[in-house]
């Protein structure tokens, strides 16, 4: 997994371009000339699934709008470790796609793609990952691109978004809890 | 990739082009005219034996 | 080119035949023509220009001597001509240009005499050279004369070698001397060759038949589009650059004017403002840095931060799972989950008991399954926990870093506003002084326009860069295809040869240009140091403009003149020294310096210095000077004077000078 080209179309592709620095030959660069919160497509691909999960948003490809964006396998492979990590988190906690706890454990720690069944399983899982990715793109697009007009707005929203997220989670308690678990 | 270029041919082309341009400082032919001349010169030099 | 003789007949205020022989002695290479103010010095320089190039810069364009004119009756024909004998490429040439005027009418109006001439005088031009026998003259075809003269001393460059005192200061101020310098050093040959060849290469590339490959075809189409666009952008960029330079120049001009102000307050406010301006620039730079840093912080392991709640939930889940498994103390040796799955699937245990979901046997078996290997699950969990720990460490930092950066951003913005207000205040101060008020407004306006132009320029430059990289992509796609297609191999070969020559041209051009510029700069500084009594040094920029390497607030006319002299002297000496001469390139020529009233705007101490080096800069120096200037200059120049003449006017019965009857003696 996370070793092939990845491409999406439709409105989410445009959201992706709105949020990330564009690289290489991009014909419609002018349509996405705003301030960018992500340095590259891959950075968004790693974190948006978590944001999508947090906001409980699963996106679906919507081709009613023209759009096209993607990454090459080399780019994805470079960040495979981090992608795997995020993937594991989602596999463990997403009850909607797998209500059974044991099965969630199993799917989070099984990576072999030896036979067709395994391959299918992984494919299904990646679909979950990607749909939360799309959801995360939607959330960030709403929070940032649709509300901000200039660089000042973006920077302020980055600050607010992070602060709010922190406060909502009562992170202290969360962190303490985690700390406790890890150090048992 | 690189075909082996004939050094002599290269030098010949360099010389010819400089001669043509030096003359043209005074003759003042148009750019398209010069480009055409140079193009023909290169084709003939490269295709020569 | 070496000047031998100038002859004039009834030309302007010179009546009759005048003849000047120029000194060509290598030591005494100065020819001086001394006269009183309006006695015809400028006319001599203009005689050169008219004879060589047909240039008529006189206000009143009639070249025929007025007295001769006034004696004409209807139908009379009179001629005026100028001829110059010179040596070029070891041949002796004589060029002669004449105008024949016909009198169309003559009458009196009151006590005024009116003599009208035909509007277009008949022109004759001849150029001939002497054969080596010293006797036979070979004429050059009339149609080729202009061309030939241009080869000897290009018209575009003539301003540098024939000039009058008033023009001197403006020469080194010209905005683009590159054409002149390159022409002089024959760099234009290389430049033209490169430009033409570039187009030829593009032509060959266009010949590549890409119809077999859609990618290559797309690349070809793309190349065409981008190339067009690139040309447009380059044009736009050049326009924007002109504007930027123009407004920057204007702003500097007004700045310099303000600096001249005698009022201490204005001076100080201006200094303060300049200081504040610098500080502002630093803050603005810092601002964009902070922005970038904030984005960088946001992109540093954001998943550790945004995944925090989910990670906590996952760790809790793992804890629970571990505890559940903990009820079973041991696991059956060598038994794996697959084995249990097999039993569950077939529906009954090893001992034969049915394993139906919900029954105790089933639940017991499932409990066992939880602690069973695959071993890798345990490892994987451990790895996962380790990662969580590692990433966890960064989450507090993430939020703090972002907060800090944002605070810094706000603080920097506040500082910027503060400084801007300061600048406003100082500007107001300057504005209060009524004289400076207008200048300050103009300066502000120029500054705004400069900023706008600069932003246009930067935007265009960016677009141009993108365009160029798109072009490169297309070209490599086409090249890749060309290599693979048998049909295109001939064209590919042509492209390879042409490219190699093109690269060689560019390299050679750049190398020579560097040599020229370095040498020019060295000589200008050399000459400048000799001519100027202060401390200054000169830098030649990429447009061959002469700049001082330190910023100055004002430049006297004398300084300007010295700067121009230094530049011209260097240019001429470089041509003389044929610094780029190579056997196959035939560059470099001798050029004379012909000057009219060169010292009219220069103060004495500079005249001294200039005179000391002038004779060495050109092969021949011809100078028409005012009597009073010569008294001063002769102290230094006398020993270099090979020939000297006086320009005198005839006097009438009352001893008054007759304007129209000037002679050279």
From TrEMBL, chain A:
Protein name: Uncharacterized protein
Organism for this UniProt entry: Ruminiclostridium sufflavum DSM 19573
TrEMBL record, chain B:
Organism: Ruminiclostridium sufflavum DSM 19573
Organism superkingdom: Bacteria
Protein name in the entry: Uncharacterized protein
Lineage: Bacteria, Bacillati, Bacillota, Clostridia, Eubacteriales
From TrEMBL, chain C:
Coiled-coil stretches noted in the UniProt entry, renumbered to this chain: 216-297
Endpoints of the signal sequence: none
UniProt keyword annotation of Coiled coil present: yes
TM stretches of this protein: none
Matching Pfam families: AAA_23
Source organism, top-level taxon: Bacteria
Entry GO MF terms: ATP hydrolysis activity
One of the GO biological process terms: double-strand break repair
Keyword entries, A-Z: Coiled coil
InterPro entries assigned to the protein according to its UniProt record, in alphabetical order: P-loop_NTPase, Rad50/SbcC_AAA
Domain Rad50/SbcC-type AAA intervals: 5-237
Classification via PANTHER family: ABC TRANSPORTER ABCH.3
Family the entry assigns: Belongs to the SMC family. SbcC subfamily.
Complexes and interactors: Heterodimer of SbcC and SbcD.
Protein name stated in the entry: Nuclease SbcCD subunit C
Source species of the chain: Ruminiclostridium sufflavum DSM 19573
Biological classification of the source: Bacteria, Bacillati, Bacillota, Clostridia, Eubacteriales
